[in-house]
Structure formats: C-alpha cells, structure tokens
Amino acid sequence: MTLLTIDDLVVEHRTPGRPLVRAVAGASLTVAAGEVVGLVGESGCGKSTLARAVCGLHPAAAGTITVGGHPVTSLGLRSRHRALTGAQMVFQDPYASLNPRRRVGAQIADGLRTADDRTTAPEDLLERVGLPRDFAERFPHEFSGGQRQRIAIARALAARPSLLIGDEPISALDASAQAHVARLMRDLAVESGAGLLFISHDLSVVRLIADRIAVMYLGKIVETGPTAEVWADPKHPYTRALLGAIPIPDGRGVLPTELPGDVPDPADPPSGCRFHPRCPLVMDVCLDREPEFGPVACWLHKPA
Amino acid sequence: MTLTISGLKVSIREAEILRGVDLTVSAGHVHGLAGESGSGKTVTGLAVLGLLPHGSRTAGTIDLAGRDLLAMPAKQLNAVRGAEIAMVFQDPATSLHPMVTVGVQLTEHMRHHIGVGRKEARERALGLLAKVRIPSPETAVDRYPHQFSGGMRQRIAIAVALACEPKVLIADEPTTALDVTVQAGILRLLRGLCDDLGLAVLLVTHDLGVMSAVADEVSVMKDGLVVETGPRGQVLTEPRHAYTRALLESLPGDDHKLPQEER
Asked: Measured between CA atoms, how close is B209 to chain A, in angstroms?
C-alpha cells in the first residue's frame, strides 16, 4: 500500500529583493507502508525542503502530496487535520527540536495526546527507544546528542505515525551514535508498520538502512531504485559521481574522485538537464531538453 | 619536524582519558588516528595544543623538535601553537568567527606570530586562499564565513591553520560535516599540502575509508590506549589486533553489521 505519494512537487522560496528559488522543481516519489526510502543528495539540493513540504511546513507551489490518501495542506496556526498527524518528523538538531524548559516525559505525552492514546505511558516509549524509564522526569539538557535524538524519536512515535520522516536525523550526532540511531529509526518504523522517509547526505548510513534509495540533484529526483541495485550498478552519472566519491577502506591509498564544479544556483538552474555542466558524459540533447522520465532521469537511460 | 608523543596520560576530573599513548607523526606524512568516540582521539589532539580543559592532569611527553610541549610554560606554548602547530576542527561553521571577515581571520595570528605588516599580511592571505583553491581570492578575502558553502568554509579554516606556515597540522574529523563530493576535494587538498609543504599531519577520523585514502600510517585507539599502529596497507588489510578487525568488520557491507554500542 502506498502511504506517501509525491507527484511533480514544486516548492518555491520567496525572499524580498532576491530571485525566486525553486528548491524542489518537479519531484515525484512514493513511500509504501513498512518501506524505508533513503533520500540522498548534496547539501542544497532540496532534500529538506521536500521533507518539510510533506509535513505541511512549506506550501507546495504546484503538484500534489498525499499521505494515506489525504492531500497535505499547509500547516495552520492552531491545528491540522487529524489524518495528517500520521506524518511525523524527526528533525536534524535534537538540541533545537526539544523544548529545553519542559520535562522529557511531558513532551512525549504531547505526542500521545495527538494520537488520543490513553493507555501508553511516556515511559513505555522511552523503553522502546532504549532509554531507562526514569528519564521521563528529566530535562533535555541532561542528555547527550544521541540520547536526545532518541527522545525526539520517542516523541514522534508517540503520535502513532503511519509515516515517519527523518530530516538528517543523524548528522548532528557523534559519529559512533549515527549508525545506531539510524538503525533504531528503521527498526521502530518497520516494527510499527509505518513507512520511513530517511533523508541524509551520509550515503554509507543510507545504504545500511534503506530498502529503496532516491537520489536528488538541484530539486529533482534523478534516480530511484532498490538500494542494493543502485549501489551495485548506479546509472545516472550523478549517482556514479556521488558513490565514486566515497573512500573505500582497502588500504591502497586511492584518493576519491572529485566531482568538478559546484552545485549551480537553484535560482538560476542550467538549461536542459540540470546536471549537464558537471556531467562527464554530456551530449547535445542534454543542453536543451530536460529528461522528464524515470527511474533514471538521464538521456543515456531513456526508457524504450 | 617530527611530533613524538610518548607515554601520554591525561586525566580530566577523576576520569582517566588517556592511559599511555605513543604516537609519532613525521614530516610529509599523514598519520591517521582511528577509534570510536570516547576512545581518546580528540583528547590526544587537544593535548598536543595544550587545549585540555582546566584542571586536567597530564603525564608523559609530547616532543616537538627537542622541546617538551607538556612541560612548556604557557607563554612559550602560546608562541608555538598557531605558529608551529595548527588545528582544523570538525565544524567550519563554528570554528570560524561569524562576524569577522575571512581576511581578518587569516591575518590576525599571522601579524601576531610573524609580525608582518598589514599590507604584506593581506598579500599572504590572498596567496593562502589561492592555495586552498578558493575562487577569486580578491573578493573572498573581504567576505564573511556565512557567504561561503560548507566545503569552502572548511577550505578557509585550513587556510587559517596554514597562515603561519606550521610544521604540524592536527585535523580533527575535518570532513565529517561535509558532503562526500566535497570531502573528496578536501582530502585531496590535505594530501597535497602534506606532500608539497612537508607538513606532519595528524588526522583524527572515525571513517576508515578516509583513513585509507590519505593516511600513510594508521593508529587505532581504544579506551585511551593505542592498540595498533602500522603502515596503512597493513593495518587496514591485515589487522593484527582483534579490535581493529572488529572496527573493519563493523563497516556497512553485505552482512549489515553495526558498530559497537555507543557509550
């Protein structure tokens, strides 16, 4: 069953006195129940904007997002439609996403109230994320980054989400805590039958937990596929460059390949294929026609 | 110049963080220091610079060209750090001052340590920015850190570290906060600087892939001790110590195993 459907989504950022930025420029993606989708790409490619749009934190300029069959509307000041509380987000920085002046238990209880859950105690959720029950009485500043992110995950889970979204949930954490928190999110989401959209720039962690991977470049999804397949045989030149840049611990001292050039300004994207100025395999057609197909948006891999 | 750490012990409050670390970093070499968090990698780096928290107790020696940095009076140490030994931190967003232009950050300690004039310092700053491959140094030098991307900021932080032509560079997880494509560029830059300038680089990283790409020698730390040291190829392909093997096996591979539980 498809939980989340994003169809040709466009999200724009408007700043007075600056050109309009299309952070997400026609992206399509689906997440099924019990599925873990990893969304990867360089910083500034629009991953986080996409995640925020799914939660209604950014209005969509065009295209549609549905969560469990309900179209996502922009988040109002007071409340949101009941059906949309099924999408819960874990933010990047647990130092900022938890309220420093409220006890951990009270913050988790907010999530339980959202789900109208009167039987579960906040302590039960702490237990599920691998923390002692008596942490509920404490304040966020008493915990390490990894523990705080676990608390943020417990709070998101308390609302009984059908879709859990992690927006770089591990990048603010200590290196050794990263794989654990990522694995925990995967296990908890799959266990409860929810889908997980996991956003990260760390490809090695995404490889560890995602069933399917989506590669984003400058507001577009350029390649999707099962993680193992994409890893073994990346098709889009950008995916190849991204995977080629990961250093391998083989002890041979080979420096990873550098992708020449910078990510272009999203306010002024290149014509045709957005990757063409940096692409080693660029052809004439790439300069003026955008490849608008999937699963690999590249003229070299046009579906028959 | 060779940096030799021998029998280094560090206690912070009541906790014994380092329990006798031996490490040698030679000129023109990158020495990689691996291990999980809490193993003492960062504390080793901080001890070399005399940046340990107040009230830490130390034993052993840190020798730089015949001088023991641990025994050195604060005033003398101030002349060494920043000038002969420099450091690059993990997060360029916090290690650079947000309200001071790149040019001032590059020239401040250059003027203090070497005593060059304002004009010459600016010239040198432009040269440094070019060396770390920042496009159009003339405009970059008058900009603020927030006007640069993360990768460019880390390049600037490296330029700041190189300003006084240090002999030893300590890089603590210099690419952990960056995208892989940007990381590739920074690793190439570090390796090139080490080869061209004959820098002795101590590279602290948890990423064995990074280690494999740039390090000449690798040391693996666990619980405040170096458990294995050797040439890159040997440590990463034929590890002798069980812990090194465990670290290598914990990498995401086909078996999908996970690293050891966090502290």
From this structure: 4
Contact of A262 with chain B, judged by CB distance below 8 Å, is answered with yes
Could you tell me the CATH number of the domain that includes residue A194?
3.40.50.300
Q: What are phi and psi of A294, to 5 degrees?
A: -130, 180
**Segment-wise mean pLDDT, segments of 10 residues, chain A, 304 residues:** 92 88 92 95 88 90 90 75 85 91 95 91 93 94 89 94 92 75 91 93 88 94 95 94 88 86 82 92 92 90 85
Tell me, what amino acid is at A31?
V
The pLDDT tens digits for B109-146 are 888 888 888 999 999 999 999 888 888 899 999 999 99
Reading the block at residue B131, the tokens are 């060396």
Interface subset of B 106-145, CB within 8 angstroms of A: none
How many Cβ atoms are within 10 Å of B142's Cβ, its own excluded?
12
Query: So what's the ipTM on this one?
Result: 0.76
How many other CB atoms are found less than 10 A from the CB of residue A182?
A: 26
Query: Where are the domains positioned within chain B?
Result: 1-84+167-263, 92-163
Total number of domains in chain A: 1
CB B134, CB B152: distance < 8 Å = yes
Give me A88's structure tokens.
Answer: 């819960």
Domain B1-84+167-263 has CATH 3.40.50.300: yes
Which residues 189-248 of chain B have a CB within 8 Å of chain A?
191, 206-216, 232-237, 248
Distances (CA, A) of B6 to B70, B203, B228, B241: 11, 18, 15, 20
Name chain B contacts of A241, Cβ cutoff 8 Å: 181
What pLDDT was estimated at residue B256?
A: 39
Mean pLDDT, residues B78-102 taken together? 90
In a domain, A172, yes or no: yes
Minimal Cβ distance to A203: which of B180, B206, B236: B180
Q: How far is the C-alpha of A103 from the C-alpha of B187, rounded, in Å?
A: 43
Q: What is the pLDDT of residue A9?
A: 95
The fraction of chain B above a pLDDT of 70, given in percent, is 95
State how far residue B238 is from chain A, nearest Cα, in angstroms. Answer: 10
Partner B, chain A 150-189, Cβ-Cβ below 8 Å: 171, 174-177, 179-180, 183
Tell me, yes or no, if the pTM score tops 0.90: no
Summarize pLDDT for A67-97 with one digit per residue, the tens.
988 888 877 666 777 778 889 999 988 889 9
Domain region containing A212: 2-73+161-229
